[in-house]
Amino acid sequence: MSQQKSKKTLINWDLVSVNPNDKNWDWKDLFCFWGINIQSIIGFSLIASLYFIYDLNSFVVFFGTLLGSLLVYFFSNLIGKPSQNYGLPFVVLLRSSLGFNGSKLFGLFRCLVGIFMFGIQTYFLSKAVVYLIRIGIFSYNSEFLDQDIFLTFFLGLNIIDWFSITLVIFVQGFLFSAGMILNKKLIKFSAIAVYLGMIVFFFSILLSDVKFTSNAFIKSFDYSNFIDKNNIAPLITVTGTIFAYFSIIILSFGDFSRYVKNENELKKGNLSLILNLVIFSFFTLFIVTGADAFLKQDPENLNRILTNPTDIIGKFDNLLIINLVLIFIIIASASTNLIANFIPSQYSLINFSPSSLTLKSSSFIIVLMGFLVGIFWLTYLSQIGILSFIDTFSALFGPIFGIMISDFYLIKNKNLVNKDIYSLESNGEYYYSGGWHIKGVYSLILGFIFSASTIWNSNLMFMHSYSWIIGAFVAGFTYYLLAKK
């Protein structure tokens, strides 16, 4: 496809259909993709908390996790198929249902959420680097960190914090902006490396006392009263919680499925999400129960169970294990940042100005804005409740998904006119009303109202885990009623 000669164009080489020769992802690559999405501190803490903190039946949590992952599998197949067929990223497909201007505006919301979360994730990622640096300095000279230079703070960060966050964000920007060939290698490396790290962590707990830790793990399972009507509500809650955890990935899943060889590989790869959850849950539960059993031998730890891996390793006097786990936390956090935040923001930003932005220039913007979010997170942004506003922006994602699915499967009957999706001509299939599909925008706003009401209406907050699905259904059904002929 050749570039249009006019200065204003919807074509960009990073947004056009993937060359069939470059569709080389198979189910193993998607296994690594889904592995990364669960391999994070948040994922670790979430799984552990569901089993231990909320006093739920173990098998209710297990089956709730399976049901949640099946929902993710179903929705990922729906949104992944059109991108796999036509080789297009999420925001370009969005032009079909909202028009090219609608795609620019509402794709930008996905970009802003991604950049903001990229900055926050980078802040916490830099903290793991800070721990490594401090351990190194302390091992070299235990009194060196008492010098004034390390006790001087600006914006809540000292010199080690500033060095770490600067290093982390620019290393990420350099690696992530290289394109999907390198990103694919990073995804595979990270998924394998983190699982190896969890195996090391697992054996460090197990071999400390095999019988003791194994018994603690077995005792954590509650077989009693699994079949009980009182377990229905917790089962629904766990299912919604697991789905909500993955929901931010689903909308922009097409950014990755466009590289998958065929639909069969897509379905097999998405099914590997369930396998990843089972594997990760096993390691998480064993590590937490084993560590908890040892720690509770000390009376000071009787009333608290640790579900955060950084808290757990902080209780063990083993520098080698601490350093290894911190390294794996850094790898896992960075790769999650790549998939969930950086790549979707890249494509959405390029789509906003396709005639002027590239992977490199969009990456620079993401890095700069993410850096600002990171450095102001502790002292300002975390204090003003801004996550509620980010949550509100995210309430758009379910409705956008619903409109795209309704448009592709029910209105367009799985057919797209590839040349018109890049056309600015008024007679183009997706030009609509000056680049706005009013029916799509109206449906989106209506779905957003329903979705966001679970955030801002205290009487509906119990449905918050399902806000994405509610918004998707309302927007998709409304769009179908308005757009059908």
Question: Would you kindly provide a written description of the structure presented here, covering whatever features stand out?
Answer:
This protein is mainly α. 69% of the residues lie in helices and 0% in strands. The protein has 17 helices and no strands. The chain has helices spanning 27-38, 41-52, 58-86, 90-140, 159-176, 180-206, 210-219, 232-251, 254-257, 263-295, 309-314, 319-352, 359-377, 386-394, 397-411, 438-456, 467-483. Residues 1-6 have low confidence and may be disordered.
Please render the helix and strand layout as text:
Layout: H1 27-38, H2 41-52, H3 58-86, H4 90-140, H5 159-176, H6 180-206, H7 210-219, H8 232-251, H9 254-257, H10 263-295, H11 309-314, H12 319-352, H13 359-377, H14 386-394, H15 397-411, H16 438-456, H17 467-483
Helix pairs in contact: 1-6, 1-10, 1-12, 2-10, 3-8, 3-10, 4-5, 4-12, 4-13, 4-15, 4-16, 5-13, 6-10, 6-12, 7-10, 8-15, 12-13, 15-16, 15-17, 16-17
> How would a crystallographer describe the biggest sheet?
none
How much helicity do the residues have?
Answer: 55-70%
Cα gyration radius (Å): 23 Å
Q: Which term fits the overall shape?
A: globular
Unreliable residue runs: 1-6
Count the helices. How many? 17
Key descriptive features of the protein:
485 residues; mainly alpha; 69% helix
In short:
With 485 residues, the chain is an all-alpha fold. 69% of the residues lie in helices and 0% in strands. The chain is globular.
